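hey can u check if this looks right to u? its 183 residues, i copy pasted from the old doc so theres a chance i mangled smth
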Amino acid sequence: MNSNKYSYRFLRAVDFVLKHEAVFARGHYGDWNFVVSENVSADKGGVTKYGIDERSHPKVDVENLTKDEAVEIYHKEYWIPSHAEDFPVGVGELLFDIKVNGGNGIQMLQDALCKLGIHCMPDGIFGPKTLEACKLAGTPVIKALCERREQRYRAIAAENPTQKKFLEGWLNRNRDAEQFATA
């Protein structure tokens, strides 16, 4: 991976994501040369490798995807569109991870800001008012954003019983993300 191509923040954030998304061949946990694809029943994405799924990326050969290719996809399709680099450290990384998991992080952030009593139009659109409100909120917004994310996960599991099997993993990842964002 050409680390000169990416910011330090992105490299830290994508490392967090990959640790939660990669599946290693039996007996090779942590060895990036042995990441395998998977096709979990009830996972709507289909074949997935490094967290990159064939449904969202129909032009990608997911089975043969390399780590460097996955990192490039994460940067182009998730990091940049989440505006992570614009937000304070911790918040931007959370927004990135939320986008990776299919959520509208900006909408969740705006909801969290409102919950904290900071006026913010919850329209799901990134803009200077959301950014300023986030900066005004300070670090408490991280916990509020993670609480909002947990609500989303619980709602998904409640609305669709086939997704309940993923709830514990989603909640664990959310707790890990909160720790990562506040570290």
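Residues 104 and 169 are 19 Å apart (CA to CA).
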